């Protein structure tokens, strides 16, 4: 195969991969969001609770970085979760500009109740891949993400 033919094939495959990846992600995301909404939470609220549940207390800024949402939006989500008494905000005693966020006992109890079911739901949604395929896909998607980030 000539270099020009290889380039054309690579371009075609790159476009196809982009479309397939986008559609697959959209399908998985919609299934996960439907499952999360059944708990009375939106996906961002669940992501914040899951982070605090599994990683412990975080600053508002760290939550925004980990959950990948804008700082203005994270404040809104934290406000909503605080009103539901699922999280607690406390000023950092050394630097009052920094606000610490932790999960409350009520939030922990809720996550103790729903998180195992969430894990099973994610497993069911992704059951089209066997263990080896999941490991391989993780490796390949990390590689793709790093490459795209560095562009």
From TrEMBL:
<dbReference type="GO" id="GO:0003700">
    <property type="term" value="F:DNA-binding transcription factor activity"/>
</dbReference>
<keyword id="KW-0805">Transcription regulation</keyword>
<feature type="domain" description="HTH marR-type">
    <location>
        <begin position="14"/>
        <end position="146"/>
    </location>
</feature>
<dbReference type="InterPro" id="IPR039422">
    <property type="entry name" value="MarR/SlyA-like"/>
</dbReference>
<dbReference type="InterPro" id="IPR036390">
    <property type="entry name" value="WH_DNA-bd_sf"/>
</dbReference>
<dbReference type="Pfam" id="PF01047">
    <property type="entry name" value="MarR"/>
</dbReference>
<dbReference type="InterPro" id="IPR036388">
    <property type="entry name" value="WH-like_DNA-bd_sf"/>
</dbReference>
<keyword id="KW-0804">Transcription</keyword>
<dbReference type="GO" id="GO:0006950">
    <property type="term" value="P:response to stress"/>
</dbReference>
<dbReference type="InterPro" id="IPR000835">
    <property type="entry name" value="HTH_MarR-typ"/>
</dbReference>
<protein>
    <submittedName>
        <fullName>MarR family transcriptional regulator</fullName>
    </submittedName>
</protein>
């Amino acid at each position: 195969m000539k270099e020009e033919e290889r380039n054309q094939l690579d371009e075609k495959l790159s476009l196809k991969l982009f479309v397939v990846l986008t559609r697959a992600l959209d399908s998985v995301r919609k299934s996960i969001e439907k499952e999360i909404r059944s708990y009375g939470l939106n996906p961002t609220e669940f992501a914040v609770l899951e982070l605090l549940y599994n990683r412990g207390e975080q600053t508002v800024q760290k939550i925004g970085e980990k959950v990948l949402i804008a700082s203005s939006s994270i404040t809104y989500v934290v406000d909503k979760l605080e009103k539901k008494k699922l999280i607690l905000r406390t000023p950092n005693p050394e630097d009052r500009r920094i606000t610490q966020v932790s999960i409350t006992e009520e939030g922990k109890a809720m996550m103790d109740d729903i998180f195992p079911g969430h894990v099973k739901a994610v497993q069911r949604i992704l059951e089209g891949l066997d263990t080896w395929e999941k490991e391989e896909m993780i490796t390949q998607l990390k590689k793709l993400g790093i490459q795209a980030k560095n562009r």
